[in-house]
Amino acid sequence: MLQTWFLVGVSVAYLAVLFAIAFYGDRRADAGRSIVGRGTIYALSLAVYATSWTYYGSVGRAASTGVGFLSIYLGPTIMLALGWLVLRRIIHISHRHRITSLADFVSARYGKSVRLGGLVAAIAVVGVVPYIALQLKAVSNTFEIIRRAPAVTPSSALGQVPVLEDTALYVALLLAGFTILFGTRHLDATERHEGMVTAIAFESVVKLVAFVAAGITVTWGLYNGFGDLFSQAAQAGHTALFTLGDSTGTWVWLNVLSLFAIVLLPRQWQVGVVENVDERHVKQAMWMTPLYMLLISVFVLPIAAAGLLRFGSGAEADTFVLTVPMAAGLDALALLVFVGGLSAATGMIIVETVALSTMVSNSIVVPTLLRRGYRGRLARLILVTRRLSIVAILLLGYAYFRLAGESAALVSMGLVSFAAVAQFAPAIIGGLYWKGGTRDGVMAGLVGGFAVWTYTLLLPNFAVTGWLPRGFLDHGPFGVEALRPEHLLGITGMDNISHGMFWSMLVNVGCYVVVSLLGRPQAREQAQAVLFVDALDDPTRPRLWRSHVPVPALHDLLVRSLGHRAAAKALDGVDLESDQDADPDLVHHVETVLAGAVGAASARMMLTSIAGEEQLGVEEVMEMLDEASQVAALEERHRLARELHDSVSQALFSMTLHARAVELALHKQGGDPDGPVARGITELRGLTQDALAEMRASLFQLRPDALREDGLAEAIRKQSAAIASREDVVIAVEAPGYRLSLDDRAEEELFRVVQEAVHNAIKHARPGRIDITLFEDDGLIIEVSDDGTGFDPATVSSSGMGLVSMRERMRRIGGGLVIDSTPAGSTTVRAVLPSAAAGEAR
């Protein structure tokens, strides 16, 4: 018999070991000798997925549905097998933009929306509280069961322990202290919690060792191996163990739920994305974490079979892992199993509360303060908010356990939370691969899906506990049977989880897609969509800021938000006394630093509060999207250009040479040079030469980086030669033989002005010759003149002939555009870049 004081001592000692390991991990990190820089630690930390639900509840599920329990493990295995396509993309984006949480990710993808981030955070808290309650229930029940040994008492017979005698309460408070100490040491939520991650990896080893030890002892200690154990179970009539007890639909939905859960549960996002130190660790996790799950699942059926043989079908199968060793008098093994279950529960609680507290702080509290005009120092306030959030979330979980937890099995409570976080899947997956998704679409989908989740899964739990009348379940609200929460619109034959998932995802995905297609994304949403969807193509950041932000104002903002030390580090090398406005790159850097501490949406709010932003016109929106998409498509254009050059272009060139060779051979052999054969060969050579010129023009268009390689003058020469060949017009270029000293932006804008001027001349003036002249005279002047039909500039609409676009391009680089034309004469387009502007562009 295990004395209560002994169990308490073991529990406290185990938590003390966790403290020691976390402390050691943090000390190593501070000394620059990180422990978590290994893929093994990363893969083990992902095994925080195996909570008390999988530790105890998978055996309970196996006892009733047989191999149906495997869906808990198959979903994550499928997702991790695709990890290099999905998880790596999420990690890459999050690291680049210093994204601190799942709520921050969704908010950043859809235009850094504050409301959207707050909605995601609220759904996460409500959806995960039952899961935290599940862990506390497991700790409390198993403590009570083991301390009453050798008698095996089912948890249903325990009754509610008085609050002050409840182990779960003290475990919750101890874990709150641990989480505050090792999970909120830093203000910057993107900084690694290396001590915490090290402790989580250790806990993954403990629960695996404990579960496997129980499985080995039961299989070969109490029985003579798998064959003996399973044959006895079959003879006793427990054949359901060896079948897929769930329907096909249920099996599919459970796999989908667990597939999403391995990434979208806040704790999984925390260890898998925020705590990741190297994207390459995903490769190791792709096989190591599924191997971990395979090992911990091997003995699920044997333990379930042993429990059914010993206690019968009516026993509480969730506790078989603990009660089978207890019934066999294996106190030491029962104690080890208890510690493993404690490890499974505490690991989940620690990481979950860190993740949720960051969401609450960055997506709810800080934006609320900023909207109300708070101007005080945020650094200390944010840390206090996170710490209070940790305590509040744990107490909420404990309250849910006390009020509703006794009515539900471990698995059902876990699946309700899985279904809640699955509501984020359309927003995340759509945001990664579909540029057309909008903030309004996500808002509509989340609100609709979460409302259906609440109605079909959460409220039925309340009805079972007595919080709502039982008639609500049996007859629907107000007696309307079509609205029964577990049989909406009369649909039957589905279990409650499959039913709730079907309707919630139908509403969620439907609203997301339909509202996105009907609406129009804002400029910032479109720009962020490019950055997320084309993340692995390394797109540049669109220049979103159109305001004047003084450098001292940025420094003051960082000091107020992060403190003096962090502000000095962030602005190292910047002249803080400068009265100049910060350039867009510095503003973006400050925004990124702030995002790591307060989230992307709050960082945007804070910068807007000191700078404001001008309204963006259509041209500016198109400019931002053009900037973001050009670099994202660069690699694809390079690839296509290389393939066209290697195949089509070289083939045409070879055809030209062969045609000329045949032509010469025919002439040497005395063939008639004016005969039909000679004329045909000459015509063929001309056609291939024209096709080759056209192909070279196309290849030039596919190489938008030619400006960077060749410079403005040479790029204009090549472009003009290609256009002249294609349009059958003479284009003469007079330009310096050296490369002009201009930055990429000025070269790009001037090149586009020349390109548009030439196209306008060919389209409207029908010229025979176009002259392009570049010369330096107190700046840079480019003239495009043609001998075609002129026009009266005063009679052309403001948007006609592309004049607005060319003038806007010149304005952006500090230059001007002059049009000299008359209806009876030629036209000259003159782009002037003054020396001051040209000097800034160098």
TrEMBL record:
| SMART domains linked to this entry | HATPase_c (SM00387)
Membrane topology qualifier:
Multi-pass membrane protein
Name of this protein: Histidine kinase
Q: Which domain of life is it from?
A: Bacteria
The family note in this entry says: Belongs to the sodium:solute symporter (SSF) (TC 2.A.21) family.
Q: Name one Pfam family in it.
A: HATPase_c
Q: Which UniProt keywords apply?
A: Kinase, Membrane, Transferase, Transmembrane, Transmembrane helix, Two-component regulatory system
In terms of PANTHER family, this protein maps to: NITRATE/NITRITE SENSOR PROTEIN NARX-RELATED, OXYGEN SENSOR HISTIDINE KINASE NREB
Question: A Gene Ontology MF term for this entry?
Answer: protein dimerization activity
- Record carries keyword Transport: no
Q: Which residues cross the membrane?
A: 6-24, 36-56, 68-87, 116-134, 167-184, 205-223, 251-269, 290-312, 332-357, 378-401, 407-434, 446-468, 501-519
Where would I find the Histidine kinase domain in this sequence? 639-837
Q: What species is this protein from? A: Lentzea alba
- Compartmental location: Membrane
Q: Name one GO cellular component term.
A: membrane
Q: What is its main location?
A: membrane
Checking InterPro entries in the record gives: HATPase_C_sf, HATPase_dom, His_kinase_dom, Na/Glc_symporter_sf, Na/solute_symporter, Sensor_HK_TwoCompSys, Sig_transdc_His_kin_sub3_dim/P
